[in-house]
Amino acid sequence: MAAQAESALRLSGTVGANKVMESELLRLVKRSPFHVRLPNPARQGSTALRYPFDPAVAWVAACYHRSSSRIGWELVSSPAVRLEPLVADLVPLLAADDRLPRGRSVTFTVEVKGAEDFEAGPLQLRGAVKSAFEQAMQKRGGRAVVQSRAADWAMLVRRVGPENERRTLVILDLGGGPRHLRGQRVAQGPAPLRETMAAQLVLLAHWMPHVEPLVDPTAGSGTIAVEAALLARGFAVRKPADLPALRLPVFAGLPPQAPPLYPDTRPYILASDVDEACIAWMIGNLRASGLTGRDIEHSVVVRTMNAIELTPKRFADILPDAPRERGLFAFNPPYGRRMQGEDGDVLGLYRDLGRTLRRFDGWRAAVIVANEGFKAAFNARPSMVKPTSAAGLRAEFLVFDLGRRQAGKRRISGARSTSHK
Ligand SMILES: C[S@@+](CC[C@H](N)C(=O)[O-])C[C@H]1O[C@@H](n2cnc3c(N)ncnc32)[C@H](O)[C@@H]1O
User: What does each C-alpha distance from 382 to 147, 312, 329, 366, 386 come to in angstroms?
Assistant: First the structure.
């Protein structure tokens, strides 16, 4: 096993995110202006997808993909577990890598994660990769200068592969850093959900914005509602101009703008919370995300409301033009672990939520929750269970069919999902 140049486009996410990341990318590429075929990815565990590199696909992912945590271009990998052999492996490979510019000066950062099995600490490993990159760029007639803020490039260092074949992988970040930092949240409640998790929740539930309203009855700062609206309209996560790595020659000729992919979709969304303070946060976050304008302001609404007071009639009064035959509740209720003694209360809330939401015959509920008591208290059998982690806790994505109609009837033939197929 020798050191080698790598070339895959890499999408990584939270535990179990592979499937949803893959179907999201497929949908985006189909909708994009490019006529490219997306090959099946190789999966690395349940958290990373590797695609043969295509600049158009990389551009689409970097600009639009919402469920992944990081997007990068694999550059080199080495089996070395000590610092000197690692540098000796990396320098010649990076120096010969014609994806990197010649005779140019770039600023960069190095981020190391999950390298516990390397025989030196993360800071030393970081220093080694930094030094290798500096030497390689010098050999290419240029200069690489470490800069902690607003650097041109971010190098990601990860340990990957099966136990007896572990390698140190160096990746060039293409996606503008951690993707949950959307750069548009202006306010957050005490327990905000990561944007990437909110996107996963909506995608996993196969929300159909053309025929289903979406309701988040415990909306906090509105993360799920904002992500749902942005998914429905196909808004970009990042502008190409904000991604310096997209200035590499291989991306020349790709569009300078990333306009919404579904600008005419008018999603119906209700975000409510019992806590009045949340309203200002939600409005701020919707506006900061660019969800403004008459049509969207009338179809995405926020309310102060105790979730257990929601009825089909009340919903119809709030969003009279929205479809009602079916719909999706998408929420993350309080987990009851952060604040001591809250567990008993949250089980009561889950039970009341189950009773309330079952009034919505033909609807579904998609939940992310880190409390094992949720399913029993909600008193319904999920049609989908997917383990994940949230706020450092073991959590689950759950999908339920509500009301009298049961599993098997929830997909309407010919209808379009968030997938907007
Ligand atoms: C985990 S937080 C939701 C966080 C939200 N997804 C976000 O990203 O900001 C749970 C929310 O449930 C709300 N909540 C608790 N009990 C409620 C009830 N009976 N009705 C409506 N909201 C409730 C809390 O005020 C809190 O904002």
Answer: 48, 22, 14, 9, 10
